[in-house]
Amino acid sequence: VVLVVDFGAQYAQLIARRVREARIYSEIVPSTMPVSEMLAKNPKAIILSGGPSSVYADGAPSIDRALFEAGVPVFGMCYGFQIMATTLGGTVDDNGAREYGRTPLKVTRSGSTLFEGTPDEQSVWMSHGDACSAAPEGFTVTASTDVVPVAAFENDEKKLYGVQYHPEVLHSTHGQQVLEHFLYRGAGIEPTWTTGNVIEEQVALIRAQVGDKRAICGLSGGVDSAVAAALVQKAIGDQLTCVYVDHGLMRKGETEQVEKDFVAATGARLVVVDAEKRFLDALAGVSDPETKRKIIGREFIRVFEQAQLEILQEEGPEVAFLVQGTLYPDVVESGGGTGTANIKSHHNVGGLPDDIEFELVEPLRQLFKDEVRMVGQELGLPEEIVQRQPFPGPGLGIRIVGEVTKERLDLLRDADAIAREELTAAGLDREIWQCPVVLLADVRSVGVQGDGRTYGHPIVLRPVSSEDAMTADWTRMPYEVLAKISTRITNEVKDVNRVVLDVTSKPPGTIEWE
Ligand code: XMP
After folding, report:
1. Ligand 1 atom closest to Cα of 297?
2. Which residues, in sequence order, are bridge partners of residue 298?
3. Prediction ipTM score
C-alpha cells in the first residue's frame, strides 16, 4: 500500500486516485495519525498531500521527523513539500512570494529521478503563500520558478522527494509522469493493482464474512448498488436476494432495466416491490419540495423494511447481512478511512425486531466511482447500468414543480426519454454530467399548434457539467441538438408547448430544481 497523508484539504483523494491510476493501491490517512501507526501498515511509499495552512500558521499540522528516517520513500507535494523542507532543516520563508494557478516550471536538473524524460520547461499548478529558499542538507534542487528558487528537490540516497506544486491536478502537464517516476523509480514499486484483483479479493472476503448465511441488497437502479449486488452475487450466488422498490417515480424503462438487464447479467434473485400507488397516495396534494422529499424518504424506508420482513419470514431468520454500495469517498468523508481494513460494522435497521441485527457487507468501501464502473464492466453489467449518470433517490418526484400525479409523471417520462435519446445519439453522455428534465406543472403559457391556440406546460432542460456535483456549470450544448430535442418534445408530448434551457451555474442554482 501507498499511504497518502491528508493535511486537511481536498487534494488527498485526488492523489490517492492518481496513485491507483498508476495501478498501485493507495489509502488515505490523517496527518494526526502517529508515525508508528503509519509504519505499522508497512507502506511501500508515503505521499504528503497539500493543505490549506501555512507552515507558520498557529496550529498548522506538523509531522514527526521519524517519518523521514524510517527508510520508506516519501514524496511531499505543496504543503507536504514545505513541511518536509522545514522538518529536515531547509528554509521556508513567508516573504510574500505567492503563486496561484498555472505557472511555468524550469527543470534545473534534467537527469533527476522525478523529471527524467519530461521537458525542461513545463506548466504546473501552484497554490502557495510561503516559498522554500534553501533545500535541506543532502538534497539537490531540481526545479525552480521565476518566484521560487527551490520548487522541487530530491535526496535519491534517502529516497526523499518533493515538489512545491500540485502534480495531481491535470493543469500540471507532466504531473502523472512525475508521480509515476516517484512510485516506479524512486520507490521501486511494481504496478500490479487492477480491478481484477479487487474482484478476486472481495469475493474471498465476502465468502469468509457471510459463510452459509443469507444477505439482502437494496437496488436503487444506480451504479453503486448494482455493482455491489453483482459482486456479492458472484461471491455467494443464491444466498443473496435483491430488493427493488418501484416507487413509480423512475424514468421510462428504468424498472425494466433492473428487472431484465441486471438479472440477465448477474443471475441474481430479485424481488420487485410495486409501490407506485402507495407513493402517489402519500404525495397527493403536496407541492412543497422538502415535504415531498421527506414523504418519499419515509415511504421508501417503510416499503424496504416491509420487504425485508417478508423475506425474513419466508427464508428464515438466518438472513443476517445487508449489502450496501458505500464508496471510498463516503468512508473518507465520514472519518472512517483510518481504521483497520474492516468491512464489517454492525447496523441496526429501524423497524425490525430488536433481536435481529444486520451486519453490513460493503464491498466497494475501497473504491472510487470510476473504479466501481470498471469493476461493474468486468462483472459483465450492461453499459447502460455501469455508465449511468447520477439520478436522485426521490426520482421524478422532485422534477415536477407542483403536485406529483401519475398523469404528470407519464408526461415528464415521455419528455425525459426524448431528451436522453437525443443526448445519447449526439454522443454527449460523457461530456454532460447529467441533464435533469423538469416539468413546470403549475405554469402554463400560450402557444400555437396547427391552427389552434394551445395553453400548455413548459419543460426545462438542465444540462450541467461537473466534476463532483458540488459545483456545476450549465453545459454549452450544440444548438442543433437543443433544436431537435425541443421540436420532438413539443411535437410528441401532449400538453407541452414550450421547451426552455436553464443557463444557471451551481451556485447559485442547485442542479435539481427542488
Ligand atoms: P443538487 O440539486 O443538490 O444535486 O445540486 C446534487 C447532486 O445530487 C443529486 N441529488 C440527489 N441524489 N438523493 C440522491 O441520491 C437525493 O435526494 C438527491 N437530491 C439531489 C442530484 O441529481 C445531483 O447529481
Report:
1. 17
2. none
3. 0.99
